[in-house]
Amino acid sequence: MDLFIILVICLSCLILLSLWNRSYAKGKLPPGPTPLPVIGNILQLNTKNISKSISMLAKDYGPVFTVYFGMKPTVVLHGYEAIKEALIDQGEVFSGRGSFPVIEKITQGFGVIFSNGERWKQIRRFSLMVLRNMGMGKKTIEDRIQEEALCLVEALKKTNASPCDPTFLLGCVPCNVISSIIFQNRFDYRDQKFLTLMKYFNENFETVSSPWIQLYNAFPFLRVLPGSHNVIFKNFALQRSFILEKVKEHQESLDINNPRDFIDYFLIRMEKEKHNKESEFTMDNLVATIWDMFSAGTETTSTTMRYGLLLLLKHPEISAKVREEIDHVVGKNRSVCMQDRSRMPYTDAVVHEIQRYIDLTPTSLPHAVTQDIRFREYLIPKGTTILTDLTSVLYDDKEFPNPEKFDPGHFLDESGNFKKSDYFMAFSAGKQAFYVHIRGHVR
């Protein structure tokens, strides 16, 4: 029996190695560490700090290399030149969304962030159009942000300058701005449904970054086991119910000549295309897109504000300069607006440096190539997952001298004017960077 088991194991390994060789033969993938059968390079990667592992591997294999998460090859891009060449210079080919099994299980390929092909193009184009339209209406997105900022200030005043943890309040702000865009109205910070909705998004954001979910994404069959992926599935089911309830309210009060928010715009488009069996404007896409918008703008924005506040507390000399510029340009009798931005180069530089320094999404979401492509001297087959190491761009010491130091000077020229940088890729770049669009409207 022991000999039989050994033979079965050896035969299995030979079959797996043969399959591996075929995958290499299909396209001349970039070099990389030798993968083990079934588990790939999992043991060679620090799942708690993937970006650090990528940087170490890049020293041996260069800016373009291949790693295996399980049996699936992933081409990694390290450094500005490689990422720019892929996401910007050849953005159309690299515009596919890479595999992310735990989210695919939830969205089923609907929505805008985790969809592909014609569906992605249509929903993305429509969503950005609605955001632009709402920015030009009677109550612009900027008005909504100013209103929410005042609500935040009032809530902070109620603490009477006593020590407090602002995490919750900072989370309310972007969530309410997005709520006003999607649901027409904001929520009171004590509204129980609002608090529950925030709780689900916070839990999902923390869970999806955990080592277990990275393991799940490499081996999706683990869904049969108990684990934190079930928390995400449960939360999404509850969030979906909340969204559907809001959609039903909108259907009952819809005026096709006077759309109030994102849901109204989508429902009107659904009605126009109800006889088109190929239409992408369906209830599934509406629910998934709303979920995507909250996911893209809520936790990322609130976390950026929280880290920004901590950095300003740690660097009082920088805080003082920001305060001085705000007092000079804005004064104390009105709210800051986007028109002030061009006259506040130091504050603009501080905001950019916060995003660069905290490096909130080190590898962003996975991309995929939409067709076979010759990239540099390699041939990458259609559908191959692409991972971008944004840390290597944000912490490039040639573009940002002494990158480990928090220094707004990274975005200022010698005259103190704001200096743009092509290396500022806080949330990726190119056609699949929907996070950037959403956060731009929220911010």
Which key terms come to mind for this protein?
single chain; 443 residues; alpha+beta; Cytochrome p450; 5-stranded mixed β-sheet; two-stranded antiparallel sheet; 16 helices; disordered C terminus
Summed up, what is this model?
The chain has 443 residues and is α+β, with helices and mostly antiparallel strands. It has helices at residues 2-26, 50-61, 80-89, 101-107, 117-135, 141-157, 167-182, 192-208, 211-218, 229-253, 262-272, 283-314, 316-329, 345-358, 391-394, 434-442, and strands spanning 64-69, 72-78, 96-97, 367-368, 373-375, 378-380, 385-389.
Topology of helices and strands:
Elements: H1 2-26, H2 50-61, E1 64-69, E2 72-78, H3 80-89, E3 96-97, H4 101-107, H5 117-135, H6 141-157, H7 167-182, H8 192-208, H9 211-218, H10 229-253, H11 262-272, H12 283-314, H13 316-329, H14 345-358, E4 367-368, E5 373-375, E6 378-380, E7 385-389, H15 391-394, H16 434-442
Parallel strand pairs: 2-7
Antiparallel strand pairs: 1-2, 3-4, 4-7, 5-6
Signal peptide: 1-25
Cofactor: heme
EC number: 1.14.14.-
Question: How would you characterize the overall build of this protein?
Answer:
Residues 1-25 form the signal peptide. Keywords: Endoplasmic reticulum, Heme, Iron, Membrane, Metal-binding, Microsome, Monooxygenase, Oxidoreductase, Signal. With 443 residues, this protein is α+β, with helices and mostly antiparallel strands. The protein has a domain at 102-314: Cytochrome P450 (Cytochrome p450). The chain has helices at residues 2-26, 50-61, 80-89, 101-107, 117-135, 141-157, 167-182, 192-208, 211-218, 229-253, 262-272, 283-314, 316-329, 345-358, 391-394, 434-442; strands at 64-69, 72-78, 96-97, 367-368, 373-375, 378-380, 385-389. The strands form two sheets. It has a five-stranded mixed β-sheet with strand order 1-2-7-4-3. β5 (373-375) and β6 (378-380) form a beta hairpin. The longest helix is centred in the C-terminal third of the chain and has 32 residues, at 283-314.
